[in-house]
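Table S2 (continued). Query chain:
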Amino acid sequence: MFTGIVSDIGRIVRVEPRGDTRVRIATAYDTATVDLGASIACSGVCLTVVDKGRDEAGDWFAVDVSGETVARTAPGQWHEGRALNLERAMKLGDELGGHIVTGHVDGVATVLTVEKTGDSHRIGLRVDAALAPFLAVKGSITIDGVSLTVNEVADQDASTHFWVNLIPHTWSVTTLGALAPGQAVNIEIDVLARYLQRMEHYRGR
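Corresponding output:
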């Protein structure tokens, strides 16, 4: 379980096609404190540490990315050189600074607009209409592993548009500061919204 508060920006330094895809990620984490089998959210995707080490370039850890994960995450996510938002799993007693995040991607959104508003940036995105019931103004959403608040929602015929605001700190310490129109990002809806929608489904039967 995670909070959507990014604590490092890692970078993919090696991709090895195997049965699954083995991805090595350079990190500022002290990997001596990272156990094999630990969970790390990589741009919103919960993955298991299967190897780790330190070389002349610094610390790194490796994860295996299944074909299912590759298919359900943003295109280009698992290429060498890609920057990733990293978050280590919560520990009991940690401050819940964002919202409850599971690291399970629900869909891929496309960036429509990036507009500077004062010192912040307003980002417009498009998702498939199937996710519309889970988006609400002032509700929480995770974009590439970053906990954000939905500011506006507009339903279209076959899709839903929504907007979030990035304060300067979020813009500078996550990969979202490099967002551009047309870019694909991972989306995780609020887990509470998911369960409420399921309850409403059965209530209406």
